[in-house]
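Subject: Predicted fold for Probable xyloglucan galactosyltransferase GT19, 474 residues

User T.R. writes:
Posting the sequence so we have a shared reference for the thread.
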Amino acid sequence: MPKQHLSDTRKISFPLTTMAPSTTATTTTTTVLLLFLTFSLLQTTTTAELDTTSDCTGRWIHIRKLPTRFNLDLLTNCSSFFPLYPDFCPDLANHGLGPKTHNHSHSWYRTDPHLLELFFHRRLLEYPCLSPHPHQSDAVFLPYYSSLDSLRFLYGPDYNSSHLHGLDLFSFLQSNDPDIWGRNNGHDHFLIMARTAWDFSQPLPVKNDEENERLWGTSFLMLPELFNLTVLTLESRAWPWQEQAIPHPTSFHPSNLGFLDSWVSRVRKSRRSSLMFFAGGGGTSPTGNPNVRRSIREECGAVQNSSVADGRRFQKLCEIVDCSNGICEHDPIRYMKPMLQASFCLQPPGETPSRRSTFDGIIAGCIPVFFEDQSAKNQFQWHLPPVEFGEFSVTIPKEEVVFKGLKIVDVLMGIPRAEVRKMREKVMELIPRIMYRKHGSSLGLRAKKDAFDIAIEGTLQRIKGRLNDVSAAG
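User M.O. replies:
I've generated the structure tokens; pasting them so everyone works from the same file.
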């Protein structure tokens, strides 16, 4: 194995020091200018020179050219909402992957999931089947950074008009080359929303009702004008057809096949000295309603001094890393090493059912334990096939844990060792599917479909099916 690949896996032991990227206005302006120049050059190249080696039948995508107020201008406002919302200027590095965890890292970054829109746009510029012709394309991508634009409605001066979020975009689509949208009434258009769908699902106000209750979020997904869009989110609701959840980006973004293979080799060789592990907040209040996070903390507290169960010995039966108040968001150092050492990673729902930690755990080869189907099985069908869920995960109904006293340790210890080994191998098979490889990665790594590739395939299939349905109905 090449020496540089081994060095990359060693670096994930993580130094205790952290980098402090500059957040000066000069750095921010330079970053945005570089992004703008790169995007412009790449888009010119990829749309002028169409791919001649790939079979692009049914796969052509046109990137709609939008005014910069819908994307790049939003990046220049990266510190505008501080202290109400964190300054995300440092996180713009590496086209939205964030700064490296440390100077010598090849594959690990301090990635903010809310910048997936920026990174997804960057990756799409490398897509082999881009077309400059919207009317001859199978899908049209809108490079609209909706999550960033929502900040002015959530924290800025437009706070009381969040029901208008999205109308400016629709107005542009209607007025600028309206035939592009009108050809299929938007059924062939898609975009990314790097938040949960719940953040964009505030009910529209009722006319002449002065007592409209203002809930959290904007009304983007409630606008009838945009119902025909296909929307990729970090978490979808259960019913709307247009939403599809795609994996939260983790901090692992390898650039070549050697870095991926060496990491998977480390995951396979890692000694699982803990039975189960939980990284997260919540469940600490002595009062309030019973919930699964509190039950997890109580059970972990009860078994923390025990290391033996049913004859099997672990250094720890349960370990917790407290991620309250967002302290783990840009710091994989806090949780990746204990994930590598754990056999099972507990993934209880929080404010919403799904969690980024699910994908962090899979990257670490830690078998996920879910407490409701909405956490993953009903969310990420493109990337985590529901028919295979029992092969790589464990599901324990939260009601059994919270109200009937079922012990998680007992369930996990009841799984035969051979079955645990098979499940972990299946988890490792999923690593390429749920990671987002770095832009500009090697041809060898591009041969493996990652989360982006699978999301694009799923989107094209969904749009094709929707157009067929519309055609049949018409």
